[in-house]
Amino acid sequence: INVKYPDSNEINLKLSFGAGELTLNPGADALVAGTATYNYAKLKPEIIINGSDIEVRVGDGDINILPNRNDLKNEWDLKLGDQPMNLSIDAGAYDGKFELGGLLLTRLEIKDGASNVELSFSEPNAVEMNTFTYNTGASDVKILGLANANFSLFDFSAGAGDYTLDFSGTLQRDASIKIESGLSNLIIIVPEGVNAVVTVQSGLSNVNAGSGWERSGEDYIQKGEGLTLTFVIEMGAGNLTLAR
Fold first, then answer.
1. What is residue 135's three-state secondary structure?
2. Who has greater pLDDT, 73 or 62?
């Protein structure tokens, strides 16, 4: 797979992926470069280009086309380029390993089904990300280095599952975080010294706030210096852990 940059100041890249394994890293000389390995003809990727809108998608675009076969292989190993882009990932039940540090992401949207995903921002996003939206089903998701994502708003919506959201990294602006989940185990990690206010809107969740967190009504506060992370968390039920 090799997709050149479009001749545009605004790039919208969409990756439509079904079941299988999806790996993303920085480092491409083009917009997208890498390989797709599959053993079912309908899984052959298609590349759709419409001006500044580019989609790399499974087969005919239907992410639920997989037959009931245990020997199916569908693996994408892709690198992304270093020009500013809006990135969206639309996937089914899959395993994902994403390193997005050092990219220039102006917007990020991820939507998937029952998934097992580890996403990290090991280096700062060099441009402001207006919104980072993640909508998932019953999944196991771990996101590391979220402060490096450089977002203004992070909107995370999930079903039952296990979720770890680690806000380590270099915070470049005040940011708002909205989290909605069903029956789940949710771990929020905010490094020591970072201002954070967490409002928990749920009477059915167990909240375990570690050292450094103070409770005031529905709010849990960690005092620090400089910029502030403001959380609103709505949980149907489950366990919430606030750590540092």
1. strand
2. 73
Query: Distance between CA atoms of 149 and 238, rounded to whole angstroms?
Result: 27
> Per-residue pLDDT tens for 12-43?
999 999 889 999 999 999 999 999 999 888 88
Q: Residue 217 burial by CB count (10 A; 0-12/13-18/19+): exposed, middle or buried? A: exposed
Identity of residue 39: N
pLDDT of residue 231: 98
Token digits for 16? 């439509």
- Hunting for tokens 């210096």 — which residue is that? 225
Query: Would you say 73 and 37 are in contact if contact means Cβ atoms under 8 Å apart?
Result: yes
Segments in 89-240 forming alpha helices (H)? none
Residue with the two structure tokens 């149907």 = 236
Give me the long-range contacts of 118-125 (CB less than 8 A, separation at least 24): 118/142, 118/143, 118/144, 119/143, 119/144, 120/144, 120/145, 121/145, 121/146, 121/147, 121/148, 121/149, 121/169, 122/148, 123/148, 124/148, 124/150, 124/169, 124/170, 124/172, 125/100, 125/101, 125/149, 125/150
- CA 63 vs. chain centroid, Å, equals 19
Q: How many Cα neighbours within 13 Å face the side chain of 82? A: 9
Angle value at C-alpha 45, between 43 and 47, nearest 5 degrees: 155
Handedness of CA 191, 197, 200, 206 (dihedral sign): positive
Q: For 141, left (φ over 0), alpha (ψ -120 to 50), or beta?
A: beta
